[in-house]
Design goal:
This protein is mainly alpha-helical. Helix content is 76%, strand content 0%. It has helices at 3-29, 38-72, 91-111, 117-146, 154-182, 186-198. The model is unreliable at 84-88 (pLDDT under 50).
């Protein structure tokens, strides 16, 4: 049985006994001039006791029980979250992400081209660009390993050029993909695809 229920019952019982006793004492201490039936007297005493003793006592007891439960409620242990380590500014990550974003946009653009042999060729070119992204990450790792922080460092300049080449290649893929919407045949797209393949960034060479 919960603390609130116990307090409510205790309050109801206390109020019943207190008001009941008071009603009985009042009845016998000041008897009425007109005699009444004992049964009527008992019923009146019970009604008075219920109205002014049991019900208010139960309400007061419930309020006390709620307060006691709130006080006794064990506090939940505070979960400790270790502080998130602050990542130092990494000038390499920015360029790598620029190349990765171009790679994702190229792959998405290729998927919009109508199915054809020319599209299969364009897909292979897109996959080659994804492989070049691994070289981009390798260059960034080299810069970190050398502890380079100067933007004029040859490694940084190489990565900056790669980010530019990826962006230029992304734009060229978009141009070729648009032309292939009207002419998806391999013969019509062959020249554009050959030129595009030559413009593919070649970081490993």
């Amino acid at each position: 049985m919960g603390v609130v229920v116990r307090s409510a019952l205790w309050g109801a019982a206390s109020g019943t006994v207190l008001i009941g006793a008071l009603a009985i004492i009042t009845e016998f201490a000041a008897p009425s001039e007109t005699p009444t039936s004992p049964l009527v007297t008992v019923i009146v005493i019970l009604i008075i006791t219920a109205m002014f003793g049991t019900a208010p006592g139960a309400m007061i007891g419930t309020a006390v029980g709620l307060i006691r439960r709130a006080v006794q409620k064990p506090k939940q242990p505070r979960v400790f979250h270790p502080p998130i380590p602050q990542q130092p500014y990494d000038m390499w990550s920015e360029l790598v992400e620029r190349c990765a974003e171009s790679t994702r946009r190229v792959a998405a653009a290729v998927q919009t081209v109508p199915r054809s042999a020319a599209k299969d060729w364009l897909v292979r070119i897109s996959e080659q660009l994804t492989q070049e992204l691994d070289d981009v990450r390798g260059i960034a790792q080299l810069g970190r390993a050398l502890g380079a922080v100067d933007r004029q460092h040859p490694v940084y300049q190489r990565l900056l050029t790669a980010a530019h080449d990826f962006k230029v290649f992304e734009n060229e893929v978009g141009r070729v993909a648009l032309q292939m919407f009207d002419h998806p045949e391999l013969d019509s797209a062959r020249v554009h695809l050959e030129v595009l393949e030559k413009q593919l960034p070649q970081l490993s060479t």
